[in-house]
Amino acid sequence: MEEKNTPKRLGFFAHSLKAVGEYSLLMKQVFRRPARWSMFFKQLVHEIAKIGLDSLLIVIIISFFIGTVITIQLAINISSPMIPRFTIGYSTREIILLEFSSSIMCLILAGKIGSSIASELGTMRVTEQIDALEVMGINSANFLILPKIIGLLLFIPILSIISMATAIGGGFLATFVTSTLSAEDFEYGMQLFFKPSNVLYSIIKSLVYAFIITSGSSYFGYYVRGGALGVGVASTNAVVTSSVLILLADVLLTNLLLI
Q1: Which of 44, 139, 146, 154 is the most buried (most CB within 10 A)?
Q2: How confident is the model over 64-78, as pLDDT tens digits?
Q3: Is 104 in a helix, a strand, or coil?
Q4: pTM reported for the whole predicted model
Q5: E strands present in 48-130
Q6: CA 54, 168, 88, 183: dihedral to nearest 10 degrees?
Q7: 5: Cβ–Cβ under 8 A, 6 or more apart, which residues?
Q8: Nearest one of 113, 90, 91, 94 to 102, comparing CA atoms
């Protein structure tokens, strides 16, 4: 049994090593000086609007309801008279700043943005549009992928801050829904032991996750194989891989930045 499993393990290792090599070579092509800066900035504005602004509504909606639910859940479960009620506001703020508005939000965006990027580039590969760019002497990786990466990196801090503000606003409105928590206690807890560095910490994590989402999804879309069926597979792989790497990066960044 062990001998039969050995070739499978070696095949998985070889496939993973090949993927890492292809990804590294792709990033080497991507991060080169654009041939025409005017076209690059035009593409950059387009990608910011498509990737960033189009994600604004879903970030606001999800952040608002998550902030509301977190506050209500804490108000229901923290019922001991030994625990001050203002700790609910404090706990809500810490959850939102340290974890939700960076990690959870980017996991959600990995599903939306990652699948969109992978399917877009995959369709271009299947329909030979990328090959046409290469024939014309254009660095297709730089032309197509770099604006996506830079665009999300520029806009993700805005999405992160909006997510924080909306989630906290939802938590504040939750005080009018539950009778066990007053708005004054919630506000006091929100201000208690506030560290501005936590906001910076959340933004730094979001920047790392944004690069993971855009570069990883671009890799799967750029190297898609198998026609239209391969586009669907690439979109799935992009979302799954981005989500796993975000969770792994979350563990590493928490240890590096907070401990």
Answers
A1: 146
A2: 999 999 999 988 888
A3: helix
A4: 0.89
A5: none
A6: -140
A7: none
A8: 94
